[in-house]
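Recap from last week: sequence in, structure out.
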Amino acid sequence: MDGRNLFSWTKLMWLCVMALVGGLTASTSAAGKEEPQQRRDDVSSITVHVPIPVPALAELYGGIHRDLASHRTADREWIALGGGTGFLKYRIWPGDQGSKTTGGRLLSHATFAFGVEYAKRLNGSLTKIAECGQRDPTAGAGRLSVNLATTFAQGRGYTLLPASTVAAIEPTGSCVLSGQSVDAAPLMAQVYRSELHEILPILDRKAAGLVTLKPAVAKIWKELQEPLLLDEAQALWLVVNPEAVGPAGIGTLSETPTAAFVVTARPTVVRGAKPLSRHLPLPDAQDRFQDDGFHVTFALQVPIEEANQRLREAVVGQEWSLGVGTIKIAGATLYPVGSQVGVELTLRGLLPLTLRLKGTPAYDESTGRILFREVDYTIKERTPATDLAEEWLHEPLRDELAGRLAIPIREELELMRTALEKGLNRDLTGGRLRGTVQQLSLKELAVQTNSLSATFKTDGALHYDSRADAVLP
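Predicted C-alpha cells:
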C-alpha cells in the first residue's frame, strides 16, 4: 500500500499511547459498566483443498467400454435373457468418449456402435437364429449412448472412495435382426446396463487404490508448520501451530473436484526473528471436527522508554483555560497499575500539581474508539493549597479532562486488517494460501514495567488450495 493508505503499525501504537492520556484523565463518572473481556486461546480452522486427479480417473472409467469389448470378443459365452429361452452375444466397435466434472462429480460419456447375435434353445441346444451389425459398424450396426456418474467420498486414512452409477443408456441407432425385422437396440441397452452394474464396483475399488491423498496432506501439514512472514518491515510472523486434521467432504474448486480437510490450529503472531519451525508428523485423521473459522490473538509491544518519549511528544505543552487561569501539561510518564494502566501528569500554571491517573482501557467496536472504565485520579502532592484548589476547580478540571476521553482508531484498525489480509494471501511451495480477515479489534491495552502492550484479535477464514499436481497416481 502507498500514499494515504500507507499503514504504520507504530502509528497505531502511538494512538494507543495517546488514548492513555485522553482516557485516563477522565473522572469516575465517565466509567462504563461493560464487563472485562476474558482472554482465551481460540482454536482456529484452516480449510485445505486437495484436488482429485480427474484425468487419471477419467481415463480409467472411460476405458470401461474398451475392457468390456475385449472381454466379450475373447469370451464367446452366450448371455441368458429372461427365463433362459433367449440368448445374446454382443460386440462393441470403437466409438467416441469424453468426460467432464460438475458439482464434485465425474461424468463420463461414450457413444459407440454395436452388433449382436441372437439365439434360442432348440432341441436342447443353442441355435443362432439372427444377427445384426456383426461385420461392419457402418452396415446395420446399432448405436448406444452411455453416461456414467462417479461421486467421491472420503474414507479412513486420507483415502478416496469413488462410487459410480449408470446415469443413462439410450439407443441412438437401430440394429435390426436379420430375418426378424426386430430392433435389438432396446434389448442391447438392457443387457449393457446389467453388464455395467457388475463391473462398476470392481472399477471403483481399482480407482480407490489408484488415488491416495495422504502424501499431499502430509506436505501441506509440513508447510503449515513453517512460520509465515506477514510484515517484513515490522518483522511480524504468523505461527500456525497445526494440531489435528479431519475430513470435510468433497467439493469443487475452479471446476476441479477437491477433497477438503479441516486443519485445527492454535495460531499466534510474534514479532522479531523468525521463530523455530516445528516438525510434527501428520496425525491420523479425526472423525469429527468443528469449523469455527480462523482467529488470532496477538500483542504488539513498544519499549517503555520509547513509549514515554512518544507520550511526552504528544501531550507536553498542551494548555487550556479554566476561566480563572491556565493549566499546562509539563510532563507525562506511563506506569503499571496491576491490570490497569496509569499516567502521571505534571501540571503547571493555575494548578501546579502532579496527577496520578489510572483506568482500564477497552475498545468499543460499535464506535471504533478506545474508552476507559473504572477511571480515577489522585493528586500526588497533598497540601492545604492543593486541597483548596481541588475543592474549587474539581468540576471544571474533570469536565475538561473528560472531553479528551475517546480516541477513534477504526480507520487505523481497518488499515491494519488490510495489511494482515495481504500477508495471508500468497503462493506457497505446495499451493496457494487464501485468507480473509473479516474483523480486527483491540482487546487489551496494558502498561508493563518494561513495555507498552496492545493486544489485538482477528477473526476470519483461511484456506490452503493445493496445486493441481499434488496428487498423482
